[in-house]
Hints:
Blueprint: H1 5-9, H2 21-37, E1 44-47, H3 54-64, E2 75-79, H4 86-95, E3 101-105, H5 116-130, E4 132-135, E5 140-143, E6 148-153, H6 161-165, E7 168-171, H7 177-190, H8 199-207, H9 213-231, H10 237-246, H11 256-271, H12 279-286, H13 290-302, E8 306-309, E9 312-315, H14 317-322, H15 332-338, H16 347-358, H17 364-370
Parallel strand pairs: 1-6, 1-7, 2-3, 3-6
Antiparallel strand pairs: 4-5, 8-9
Helix pairs in contact: 7-8, 7-9, 8-10, 9-10
The structure holds adenosine-5'-diphosphate (ADP).
Amino acid sequence: MKEGISTQVRPQTLDELVGMDHNVNIIKYEIGGSQALGEPLNSYMLVGPPGTGKSTIATLISSMTKRPNGMNSEVHKYLGSDIKEPDDLYDIARNAEDGDVVYVEEAHSIGGGGRKKSEVQAILLEWIENHQILNGASFGLINAPKVCFLFPTTNPGRLASPLRNRCKMLHTHFYKLDDMKEIITRALTKVGIDSNQQEDALTLLAKSSRGTPRTAIMHRIDALRKVMAVDNLSFNLASVDLSLKIHNINEWGLEANDIKYCHAIHRIMLESNGRPVGKNTIRNILGIEPDMIDVIEQYLQQISAIAIDTRGRRLTDFGCRLINVEPIEVSEFVTNIVNPQTRITTEETKESILELIQNGCSTMKEIMPQIGMRYP
Ligand code: ADP
């Protein structure tokens, strides 16, 4: 049996990474620089939405690094939740050698949730900074292998700041339409599909891939290939359109969960004169994990279907169009509360505010109650 599609299309060199010139440059100089200076590589935090290239970067970094004896580096992969005790770190240190890469997903779970957390983190920080680790048997510090730690995360805010401060950052983002088209064209070529002269089909495939290479490769292209194989179709707008319809995905790549989310916000806003919706409210209604909500919101925000500020999330007019509902009428009262500085709509309100300012009021906290609004 052949390899799965994700293995077939995975970039093998930095030059095959599309739309990442900035990171590619950093990686080339960081690795080349440490090798030229004979110093260990730094540790990095890889920050970005799921499926945008974090583990691809990790694999490429490890393919470019070497152990001091010239052998290829090994990548040791762990989950943060695998590292509960100081001894778990000690085991990792025993299995790794100078020049290796240690990739830890969900690093916020390192040390679990209990009292060991700060102890485990302190040992890890010492390892990253000084390449030393506490030896459980002798209770002393011993040399630890000089490894490059890579911590991929979709949400760096969840990681303790001492860890963030000891790592350099590499960011991945949602990709622009042209970059997505290039990633898709390359992937199609690798799996033997000629996309030449099929600009419309490529654009639809790219637009429906949510700016995310993994979605393009593992979902859109994979589904399309199967539709093409079963119905004996060639690559064109009709076959792409059919494969999206079969999976109930619209041209913007919205799936059932996104649509459900948008409808929920729409309904809550309608019931509250357009007031923005809190994260807990939406979470309780949809009954899905906060991490999943983050993933849904990241993309909906990216295409401006929702807007999020400190008061909550709102479905925009564009978001309403996407789910075929009328734009939500926001009452003047709520509009002013949502954004008091820029959305004072009536002349009467403006005049009252000017008068209050002339009389010495200088903050919204002082002004809003006096014009009948609740200060949040
Ligand atoms: P993450 O670790 O951020 O979840 P991955 O690195 O696993 O994402 O990427 C998912 C897939 O997308 C990979 O198999 C890779 O083939 C492809 N991919 C990601 N970024 C790029 C890129 N910049 N250029 C080409 N392909 C990419």
